[in-house]
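To: structure subgroup
Subject: Chain for Friday's discussion

All,

I'm putting the inputs and outputs inline so they're searchable in the archive.
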Amino acid sequence: MSDLNSILASLNPITLDEMDSVKLMDRSDTKFIFHSTRLPLLLSQVKPFYRVLDIAGNRLNRYETLYYDYPDFLLYKKHHNGKLNRHKVRFREYTDSGKCYFEVKFKSNKDKTKKVRIKTKKIALCIDGEAANFLNDCSKMEATSLFPGVRINYSRITLVSKFRSERLTIDLGLSYRNSQPGHPRWSDDRFITVDNLAIAEVKQEKFSYSTHFFAVMKNNRIRTARLSKYCTGVNLLYPEVKSNRFKERLLNVRRVTLG
């Protein structure tokens, strides 16, 4: 961790306000996964090309996300079955900045991701009021039909390109929980951590291989990977839910984390 903190401290910073020009709410996403011990070297190689998000001196920022789905995990199953034109519904708290949003993500049949959101005071165990109206307006889903199924905590590094409209996020220290005391949907408390995994995601307005991060990953022989943090959480926390199409992805996570 000391090597990671050292290299993060050496990157040029960018503030939240400065990032407004690269929100990329309608974008193309590309992911990579690798063992977290490789991260300091990778960051040193991309250092000349990116700035790092700095929030009150923190460059490794904490996130908490609570995902909603139907009781039969219909939203998850659409992803599992390869359906496009699908949604994800969640509350997300940016712990270090104190900001919280209710968000709806849409994956189109053109493989583009569009995210819309509204500010909220905190993560909630039910979708009601303004959030319920917002959900119905942008997706036609009824909030009362959904339940909070997967809670994810992790730390994130956010990099912004100095030369193009591109953001890069790197997530570390993932932990999953299905339980919230007193909620009737859960019969038990399941808590799982995924050690040694780093998930990098390149977010671009229009997909292109000609980015500095892609070049660094190619030179280090790290290939692109398909992985959803939410779907992985369902697989880990709810083994009774169908997951055969994701088995190879989970095996790939295990191979990466074991080094």
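Points worth raising on Friday:
The domain at 2-258 is CATH 2.40.320.10 (Hypothetical Protein Pfu-838710-001).
The mean pLDDT is 90.

D.
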